[in-house]
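The records we work with from here on pair a chain with its fold. These numbers are not coordinates but entries in a learned vocabulary of local backbone shapes. To see the layout at work, look at the sequence and tokens printed below:
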Amino acid sequence: MISFKDQLNRSVELTSVPKRIISLVPSQTELLVDLGLEDSIVGVTKFCVHPDYLRKGKTIVGGTKQVHYDKIKALQPDLILCNKEENTKEMVEELEKIAPVHVSDIYTIDDTAELIKQYGELFSIHNKATEITNKLIDLVDDFKNYIINRPVKKVAYFIWRKPWMVAGNNTIIDHLLSLNKFKNVFANLSRYPEVDINTLVEKNKPDFVLLSSEPYPFKEKHIEELKGIIPKTKILLVDGEYFSWYGTRLLEAFNYFKALHKLLDSKD
């Protein structure tokens, strides 16, 4: 028996390197594929959209909040991968009756690097995990140099409509906003709070409002809707995957962020 620790410091007991993996977190599913573990994945969620072909060849066991335990049990997994935010505590407890469960807990890029290292150990792919981690570190350093002389911009990052909800502190979104030198006007609030949209006019007054493509699919029509409420604030649609997905999605995020800054410059 080999014992590992997950990101909640829980013990994960394995008898051998897992060969049958179920991933219940979309960004972690993508990471597994990029680590070379696609053939070992037997079950995914309906939200595991990257790579786009993957769901056709794997068993879909449900979503991130609700799963079909009978399907999961039938797949005879060696290991189930979860996330503290994406999956519920009750779900993890039920899944542990089927197979060992590893739970990630991601708030920063450093947390992501730690997760990749843990996967390197769990699946005995140390070299590939190190390769990806080093590439991520290099990209972060390059982006920090790119952003170093840029001014700080105040932003509000919306994830939901009716009720209006934003990204607050203690989130990967807030961490990446900060890395972009975006001052989150709702950083005094925790996690993903509901907010009064009128505070953007009366109190917070951001330079930009960013409307995420997920989990709520904001569109151009919502920009027009908000212009009626906050006519003096610049509003943009942003790709939520680059602000909320961790793992190897971050390897593509920094080019996206550079393009976003050029777009913001054009709107100043």
Q: What stands out?
A: The longest helix spans residues 126-147. The CA atoms of residues 80 and 173 lie 25 Å apart. The chain has a mean pLDDT of 96. The chain has two domains: 2-139, 150-267.
